[in-house]
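Tokens for Ribosomal RNA small subunit methyltransferase I. Go.
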Amino acid sequence: MSKLYIVPTPIGNLEDMTFRAIRILKEVDLILAEDTRTSGKLLKHFEIGTHMHSHHMHNEHKTIENVISRLKAGENIALISDAGTPAISDPGFLLTRACIENGIAVECLPGATAFVPALVNSGLPNDKFVFEGFLPEKKGRQTRYLELAEETRTMILYVSPHKLVKTLAEFITYFGEDRTICVCRELSKLHEENVRGTAREVLTHFEKTAPRGEIVVVIAGKTVVKEAKKSKFQKDEE
């Protein structure tokens, strides 16, 4: 039977590519890639010659029908994103759902994703947490902040570097300046950095040092706000 493979790819360090992921990408009939130029570099590095098709947020509604047809015809197909696990703030959900609705097997390989190491690196409680991905740009943003202000679990957000300072200022408005947070930047890469402290301390740091690269922000839940005053500003980098 044919199968759709969801294959994670490294978020920065190519050594995080698994042996199984390389094998699957070599064996399938087709690879669906978010950006074929970006993925082409990865495939070349691991000597993978499988043909690629573009599958991203702007065309996935149009391409799903053709992909399902190819799977029904007996082909095995792999889905990858530019970095990390597909469907986590990347295309993948719609195709996965379509496969399930059509009785096509789906198998997701374990592998790299940015929010897990960020959560562990933060030093904040990780027995219960909520992943928010990217917040709404405009409509619904304030409403979401008001809801998150009451969240008791540790929260994880993805933030673009050019929006980080503004977002940190918003944290102070909705969560308070003493809320403990950790900004994780360039995870697994040469210039990985973890900046921990209160919202005010971390904002001050990035007002002086312009943020760059991929960023994950981890925020303490409401129940541990009192602990924030005991914390000390800390910056770890490799």
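The chain has two domains: 3-108, 114-219.
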